[in-house]
Amino acid sequence: MLSPKGLLYKQPNILGGQTDVATVTPWLAPIVWEGTFEPTLIDTIYKQQNLTIATTVFAVGKYVRFLKDFLQTAEKHYFLGFCVHYYIFTDQPEAIPAVTLAPNRTLTPVKIPSSNRWQEITLRRMERLQEIIKSRLMSEADYIFSLDVDTKFYGPWGAETLGRLVAVLHPGYYTTGRQRFPYERRPQSQAYIPAGEGDYYYGGAVIGGHLEDVYRLAKTCKEQLDIDASKSIEAAWQEESHLNKYFLYNKPTKVLSPEYLWQDFKPKTKEVKVIRFSQIIKNYAEVRPNP
Ligand code: UDP
Ligand code: MN
């Protein structure tokens, strides 16, 4: 039974909360903005289901240094009160910082080899994601989010983000026309999107959904990446380009606003009422193994 307390909410006309942004896609998937939902109500509904949210994070090479802030801020803001299982893919399990996790939250290190090319590290994420979903997550979790580690949480991220297939609007392109999206434009690549096509430009730092849906996404993107590799072509924005291609033909059932993927260097805009998750400023030359 839902507790009556959880079902009460403050805003009588919640749909009037955000009027200056689109809150639904042309295929009727919600676009999640502050003011369009009541967090307590949504959390109350989802908490009845006793869900586990698998959260996969890669921290290879120097990127292990980002884990501490990522985990500490996730413990303050990310799915509070839910069962969260972090899976940390790293070449240095011993370097995973000891961050105190709330009850019902666990962390599993997954050892993977290091690489001397960052493109290789990011490109292999789809393959590893596909493998771990199949080998263990199907029986260990209900939903999954795969998140970049060079990030921090600054605001609440809860059950409003759950859906079958969840994408995030890239903070750099949510006000831009589709002709300016940095899709892969060479027809030789499997990530190719012709001019005039495309719905949104999605960020590669957040992928989420049901395990089966994210499994299909990871498997398809991995296959497409392999075909490109066999032709020695690397898409403009690596797996983000393939992700955008996938979402063009497999529409996300929920789209997160750029509140869920901001960039620390970017000043807050009027549409963004809350920054929930943001990419930190990093010195690429210093953290990546190759230029
Ligand atoms: N990554 C990593 N080690 C590397 C490069 C990348 O662990 O040397 C992982 C890490 O999880 C990172 C993600 O791949 O968040 C995406 O890479 P990056 O953040 O460098 O790409 P950007 O967000 O700058 O496009
Ligand atoms: Mn990143």
TrEMBL record:
Annotated Pfam families: Glyco_transf_6
Report one GO cellular component.
vesicle
Q: Which cofactor does it need?
A: Mn(2+)
The reply to whether Zinc figures as a keyword in the UniProt entry is no
Q: Which GO terms describe its molecular function?
A: hexosyltransferase activity; metal ion binding
The annotation note on the cofactor reads: Binds 1 Mn(2+) ion per subunit.
Asked whether the UniProt record includes Glycosyltransferase among its keywords, one would answer yes
**Gene3D superfamilies recorded for this chain?**
Spore Coat Polysaccharide Biosynthesis Protein SpsA, Chain A
Q: Which residues bind an alpha-L-fucosyl-(1->2)-beta-D-galactosyl derivative?
A: 170, 240
Positions annotated as active site in the UniProt record? 240
What GO terms describe the biological role, i.e. biological process, of this protein?
carbohydrate metabolic process
Give the family per the record. Belongs to the glycosyltransferase 6 family.
Q: What is this protein called?
A: Globoside alpha-1,3-N-acetylgalactosaminyltransferase 1-like
Native species of this protein?
Chanos chanos
